[in-house]
Give the backbone structure.
Amino acid sequence: MDANHFLSAYYPDTSYGGKRLFDDMVEQAKAAERLGYRGVTLPEHHLINVLLTPSPLQMAVKISCETERLELVTSVAVLPLHDMRIFAGEVIQADILTDGRLVLGVGRGAFAYEMGRLGSPLEESKARFDESLDVLIALMTTEEVSWDGEYYRFEALTVMPRPMTQPMPRVMVAVMNPPGIAASTRRGFDIQTTPLAGRPELFRAQVAAHKEAKAEMGEAGRHLRIMMSRVIYCTESAAQTREMVRRAHDYYSRFDNVFTGPGIVHNGDVEPLTRTQTIRELEQNLIICQADEMLDRLAEYAGAGIDEVILSSNLGQPQGDHLEAMERFAGDVLPHLLQVSAAA
């Protein structure tokens, strides 16, 4: 099982500033390459200090200039927020400028606050996403495309330049429900998913849906893979575990506000809200622990057939602490996960 580092762009203290935030992300990406991670994932979010990256494609190009082999995965580009006639060209340009290392992870959007303020209400996001994905693929794989749909109507056009990676840059779909995972797999897409709360039965159903659909495809599905995103942080002590779980609880007090809550935001700063879930209950759903325990907990993911685990580990801790945790994971955990991959 490979590892991917999520460049999550969370800064609870907005005075930290965008320059330091994005410099930290680039430094983490360089560390990920040096430490043997397969790639990094790049979110797209706007207007808020949670997961803030307005242009993951720009960040992918920047990181490609600072690294040599890292896979650069958007996690995810929010298709309903873009005009596919423009976005297709931007994806192709990024594919060229990253020398083919781009993997375009796409999704429908998750935060009602930003979706509504950017003119694409969350209630419409599923239908908008489905049509947008079809339009995007058509524009990247075919010349002189015309369209007459619900959200797109345009006369024949050809996006230029044409893709370097043929027939198009690799596309990965973010989806949580098992039927959606199976359907996306059958269409030939790689999968990004997460059980969020960490319920074992959902995790197993997600993996099974991908594997069963992949098996039905035979040789045509052999190359497809599934990535699982979790909050994962390799601590050095029990005291640091407690501190990082506390930070995670604070993070989710903001995340929940814009994900499932009222979306209370002041000048871009998401207000932390009181959570009903206790810190102890949250700890059971996250993988914040020392290396020995982490090996046991991640062994289930590797054994179930997860191809790559995405480590979401930015919980507002200092950059130095973050880099040290990456070192611990790479030295004490990752070699064992890679052995599982080799054995499989």
Notes: The radius of gyration is 20 Å. The longest strand covers residues 226-234.
